[in-house]
Amino acid sequence: MPEEAENTEETLQQSVAKSEEAEVDELGALRAENEELIDTLQRVQAEFENYRKRAARDQENLVARAHERLVRELLPVLDDLERALEAAEKHEEGKLEEGVRLVHRALADALAREGLAEVEVDGKFDPHVHEALLTQPSDHEEGSVIDVLQKGYRLGDRVLRPARVVVAGPKEGADGNEG
């Protein structure tokens, strides 16, 4: 029996040794996997940071190109304005008026190509695109636009500046009392 006890004790020690060895191997595998995941995470983080910087740089370039295109469109307007000023210095009123009209048309065309459009002022007052500065008694239908004091403009679907208008109020003498 002592032999059996020694064999059992030896088997038990071998089993404990194998178990410790397996735990050490498992711990080493987990550490290696942990290091690999940390490395992957650091790479993804670095790639994202590079992407963010590249996207910001691309956005800046896009804005710069858009400004460049608009300025290039406006350069001929600047040239026409300089010619009109030269005509004004020489007291050539006819050429001055013609030059100013040319500048206005060129500027309006350049801005229209960029998507600028006047706000429509026909008909009823619309608080989304009009700003009522006055109401006046009028023969027009109450709430309709009767005069434009300053044009309004849209850029695409956004109102850049509302049209400043005079709106028709109740007719003069119509105070709601009869008799």
Structure description:
The chain is of the alpha+beta class and 179 residues long. It folds into 2 domains: 1-114, no CATH class; 117-179, Head domain of nucleotide exchange factor GrpE (Nucleotide Exchange Factor Grpe, Chain A, domain 2, Roll). The protein is built from 2 helices and 6 strands. The strands form 2 sheets. A 3-stranded antiparallel beta sheet has the order 1-4-5.
The value of Rg in angstroms is 40 Å
Strand order, largest beta sheet: 1-4-5
Mean of residue pLDDT values: 83
Helix fraction bin:
55-70%
Q: Report how far the terminal alpha carbons are from each other.
A: 133 Å
Q: What about the largest sheet?
A: 3 strands, antiparallel
- Beta-sheet strand percentage? 15-25%
Q: Could you give the count of β-strands? A: 6
Counting DSSP H or I runs of 4 or more residues, the number of helices is 2
List the helices and strands and how they pair.
Layout: H1 2-89, H2 93-113, E1 116-118, E2 130-137, E3 145-150, E4 153-155, E5 158-161, E6 163-169
Parallel strand pairs: 2-6
Antiparallel strand pairs: 1-4, 3-6, 4-5
Helix pairs in contact: 1-2
